[in-house]
Amino acid sequence: MKKKAVILIDGENFRYSLKSLFPGRFKYLPKKVDWAKLFTLPLAEDHELVRMYWYVVDSLHFRPFEIPEWDSDFERLLKKVVSTKLELTRNANRKDSYLREKREQLKHVRTTIRERFSDWRRDQDRISHLHDFLEFRRCGSIVYNLLTNSFEREKGVDVKLAIDLFAFKEIADVAVLFSGDQDYIPAIQAYKDSGKHIFSVNFETANKRLLPGGSYMLSGLVDKVVTIGQENILAHIKEF
User: Fold this and answer.
1) CB of 22 within 8 A of CB of 240?
2) pLDDT at 163 over 80
3) How far apart are CA 126 and CA 128, in angstroms?
4) 162/168 Cα distance (integer angstroms)
5) Nearest to residue 12, comparing CAs of 191, 206, 179?
6) In whole angstroms, what is the distance from residue 33 CA to residue 53 CA?
7) pLDDT (average), residues 154-161
8) What is the band of 239 on the pLDDT scale with cuts at 50, 70, 90?
9) Which residue range is the domain that position 27 belongs to?
């Protein structure tokens, strides 16, 4: 009798692994990939795939939430961050025009990031449409800081994945986790305590170097660590 298996992909953790393996080759995810074959590499012949769950953020927020229209409020906001405070100091002799230009710049960045986030969702919909048994689970949120021009850490995705992992003990004998985040350790232990098996996945570069980011504690807790080499990933990416 085959063992039923579920695959859980921590979206951001997995995406950063791909970007480390293939720097500069794509913006979000490579377009032409046989994701089903890639994600099922850790499974053996006696495993029967139930479903693949790919966890990504559901909503996008900005810091600051609003861009002040009053110059005094906007100037006060810029002074809260070292980089923008220095910019303001350097442009003190043209403060009015600088504040006007900076406000428009932040609004443009906000629009650009919103469009990028919408593109990500379209990519996710396209991938799920092309692959059977692959479902994107949107949960939690991520904040883009307009003043530092960077994303902050996503919130809620790891919690949803951990809750689902514990629930999947009712439908799966084996879980494969594409993440090395030690935040999942309590959920992994609970899943194992129910008599089920769990694997985690590591990635290896072409020169046989393991990517950083995998927790040593997590690797020691799971039943099996599966290492996927860069060449095995490349075999399933058709556009490179």
Assistant:
1) yes
2) yes
3) 6
4) 10
5) 179
6) 16
7) 95
8) low
9) 3-59+121-234
What pLDDT is attached to residue 225? 93
Position 53 in a domain: yes
Tokens of 138: 């949107």
**Considering the entire predicted model, what is its pTM?**
0.91
SS3 state at 62? strand
- Other C-beta atoms closer than 10 Å to the C-beta of 72 total 9
Task: Quickly count: other Cβ atoms within 10 Å of residue 219's Cβ.
Answer: 15
Question: What would the two tokens of residue 225 be?
Answer: 């660590």
Region of poorest pLDDT, from 32-36, 161-165, 214-218:
214-218
The mean pLDDT of 26-54, rounded to a whole number, is 93
Chain CA centroid to CA 148, Å: 20
The Cβ-side half-sphere exposure at 180, using a 13 Å CA radius, reads 20
CB 26 within 8 A of CB 33: no
Closest CA to 12 of 201, 127, 166, 178: 178
Tokens describing residue 123 = 């990519």
- Is 155 within the bounds of a domain? yes
The residue with greater pLDDT, 210 or 161, is 161
108 occurs within a structural domain: no
CATH code of the domain in which 150 resides: 3.40.50.1010
- d(CA 63, CA 152) in angstroms, rounded, equals 9
Instruction: Provide the number of structural domains found in the chain.
Output: 1
Average pLDDT, the chain: 93
Place of tokens 């919130």: 155
Task: Report whether pLDDT(41) > 80.
Answer: yes
Q: Is residue 144 part of a domain?
A: yes
